[in-house]
Design brief:
The protein is 80% helix and 3% strand. By secondary structure, it is an all-alpha fold. Among the domains are: 141 residues, no CATH class; 144 residues, no CATH class. The chain has a two-stranded antiparallel ribbon with strand order 1-2. A hairpin with a 2-residue loop joins strand 1 and strand 2. The longest helix is centred in the middle third of the chain and has 46 residues. It starts with a strand and ends with a helix. The N terminus is likely disordered.
Length: 412
C-alpha cells in the first residue's frame, strides 16, 4: 500500500493491485467518477463519493436490500408546501381535462359497471350453490342470451307483419285525416295538421335528408357502443370480486371493515334496482298487450314492446309510452282513446304505490320525491343513461349520508 499527497488535502491511502490491472468494484466506481468529473484523483469530491460507494456496498451486504429509509423531508418548509400545492393544482386540472375529453368513454364504462353490478347477485347466488365464478358467469350469460333469442323469435315475425301493415295503411290514414267527419279529420280541420306536415316537408326537406344520414351514423355509433358496453360488462362481471377488493383497499385499514359493509350494501341496492326495474317493465308490456288486444287497438305487439322499453326509464317512462298508445288508440275511436288514457293513469298509480314498493322498495328504499329529483338531475347530466342510474345512485348517496355524514354531524 502506498500513499500519495495532494495539493488539495492530506495524503490518501491507495492500494496497488499489481501489474495485472485487476480492480475491484470500489476502484471501478472511483475511476468512473474521476473520468466523469475530471477532478484530480485525490480530490475531496472524489473521496466523498468513494466513501459513499463503499458505504452503499457494505449496506447492501448487511441488509440484502436497499437499507432503511432516511428521515422524511420537512413538510412544513415553504418550498415543500409550495411544491405540494402546485402539484395538487396540476393534478386536479389534469383530472378535470381527462374527464372532459373522455366523458363519452367514461359513460360507457360506468354503464357497463352498472350492468355488471346488477347481474352480480345472480352470479353470487350460483357460486353459493357450488359453481365456480366463471361457470356462474357463463350460466348467467347463457340465460340472458336465451331469453333474448326467445324474445326476438317471438317478436320479430309479428312485428315485421304489423310494420308492413302500417306502411300499407298509411294512405287510408291520410284519407281519414282528410275526412272531416272522423275524429282525426276534425282535429286536422281545427289544427291544420296536414298543412303543417306539407310545409315542414317543403321547407325542411334538405335538413330531413341530412337528418336521415345523421340517423344512420347514430345507429352505427349506438351499435358499436352497445358492443363495447356488453364486452366490458362481461369482463367486469367476471372480475367483480377483485374490483370490489381493489375499491375497498383504497380505504384506511382501520375503517376498511365498515367500508366493506357499506359497499356491499350499495352493490346489493344496485342489483335489486336492476332486477326490479326489469320486472316492472315486463309487467307494463304484458298489461299493455292485453289491453290493446281486448279493445282491438292496432299493432299491439309493437306498442307493448315500446311501452316495456320506455318503462325501463323510471317514473316517466310508462307515462310517455301511455301517451303514445293513447294517440294510436284515437284511430279506433275517441271512447277507446279515453279509456286507454284512464288505463295508463290507473297503471301509473298502481305501479307507484303497489308494484314498485313490493318489487324493489325493500332493496332500494328511496322516497318518491327523491326519485323524481334524482331522475331529473340524472337525465339533465347524461340523458337516458343518467335517468337509468339515477335512482340507485340516489340510494347509494342516501346510505352514505345516513351512515357517515349524519353520524359525524350528530357526534360533533
Amino acid at each position: 500500500m502506498t500513499t500519495r499527497s495532494s495539493e488539495h488535502g492530506p495524503a490518501v491511502p491507495r492500494q496497488d493491485h499489481g501489474a495485472a490491472g485487476h480492480s475491484g468494484p470500489e476502484n471501478q466506481a472511483r475511476e468512473q467518477l474521476r473520468d466523469a468529473a475530471g477532478d484530480p484523483p485525490a480530490s475531496d469530491a472524489g473521496d466523498r463519493m468513494h466513501e459513499a460507494v463503499q458505504a452503499a456496498q457494505e449496506l447492501a451486504q448487511e441488509s440484502g436490500g436497499f437499507g432503511t429509509p432516511g428521515r422524511p423531508l420537512d413538510r412544513r418548509s415553504p418550498f415543500f408546501v409550495g411544491m405540494a400545492a402546485a402539484a395538487g393544482v396540476a393534478v386536479t386540472i389534469a383530472l378535470v381535462e381527462l374527464i372532459i375529453h373522455a366523458r363519452s368513454v367514461l359513460v360507457l364504462v360506468g354503464l357497463a359497471l352498472f350492468i355488471a353490478a346488477g347481474l352480480d347477485p345472480a352470479v353470487t347466488w350460483l357460486t353459493r350453490h357450488g359453481l365456480r365464478r366463471w361457470q356462474a358467469v357463463l350460466v348467467t350469460l347463457a340465460v340472458l342470451l336465451g331469453v333474448l333469442a326467445g324474445f326476438l323469435a317471438a317478436a320479430i315475425p309479428p312485428l315485421a307483419a304489423q310494420t308492413t301493415a302500417l306502411i300499407h295503411e298509411l294512405p287510408s290514414y291520410l284519407n281519414t285525416l282528410r275526412d272531416h267527419n272522423s275524429q282525426i279529420g276534425k282535429l286536422d280541420a281545427q289544427y291544420h295538421i296536414e298543412d303543417r306536415i306539407r310545409t315542414l316537408l317543403q321547407t325542411k326537406g334538405g335538413s330531413l335528408i341530412g337528418g336521415v344520414l345523421g340517423a344512420g351514423e347514430v345507429v352505427l355509433s349506438t351499435f358499436s357502443s352497445i358492443v363495447v358496453v356488453a364486452v366490458l360488462a362481461i369482463y367486469f362481471l367476471a372480475d367483480m370480486p377483485r374490483i370490489k377488493l381493489l375499491a375497498y383497499r383504497l380505504a384506511p385499514h382501520s375503517r376498511r371493515a365498515r367500508v366493506i359493509l357499506i359497499g356491499d350494501e350499495i352493490f346489493a341496492k344496485v342489483g335489486g334496482f336492476v332486477l326490479g326495474n326489469f320486472v316492472t317493465s315486463v309487467i307494463a308490456g304484458i298489461g299493455t298487450y292485453i289491453w290493446l288486444v281486448i279493445f282491438g287497438v292496432p299493432y299491439p305487439i309493437l306498442l307493448s314492446l315500446l311501452v316495456a322499453f320506455l318503462d325501463l326509464i323510471p317514473v316517466i317512462g310508462s307515462t310517455i309510452g301511455g301517451a303514445i298508445v293513447t294517440l294510436v288508440a284515437l284511430t279506433v275511436s275517441l271512447p277507446v282513446a279515453i279509456a286507454t288514457l284512464g288505463f295508463y293513469i290507473a297503471y301509473r298509480l298502481a305501479e307507484d304505490y303497489f308494484v314498485v314498493p313490493r318489487v324493489m322498495g325493500r332493496t332500494v328504499q328511496v322516497p318518491g320525491a327523491v326519485s323524481v329529483v334524482a331522475l331529473l338531475v340524472g337525465g339533465a347530466l347524461m340523458g337516458i343513461i343518467g335517468a337509468l342510474v339515477a335512482i340507485p345512485a340516489a340510494a347509494a348517496l342516501r346510505l352514505f349520508l345516513q351512515e357517515v355524514v349524519f353520524r359525524r354531524l350528530d357526534d360533533s
